[in-house]
Predict the 3D structure of the following.
Amino acid sequence: MADPMRIRAQAAGGKATVRVLMSHEMESGQRKDAAGKTVPAWFIQEVTATLNGKQVLSAEWGPAVAKNPFMQFNIKNAKAGDKVAVTWKDNKGDTRTDEATVS
């Protein structure tokens, strides 16, 4: 399983700003190794976020997203103490879910 995501969620003015740094190699499938063989594609396909168990974000990604992607988004009506969970699934079927508390 991949390394944990770094998630920060800060409430201000009736919303929470969520910042997520995901640990993933993100191979496009177009690069060649030293022997000239194509490195197989390996990238995050789906990202979802929930606030206290209710889905607030859904995204579909492709091979053009950079290694160890960073994502930032806002959630309306979030307050300190709420739980934000972020889940990703890659094209090899691996998944990762991490959670943070809004501060």
Observations:
- The chain has a mean pLDDT of 94.
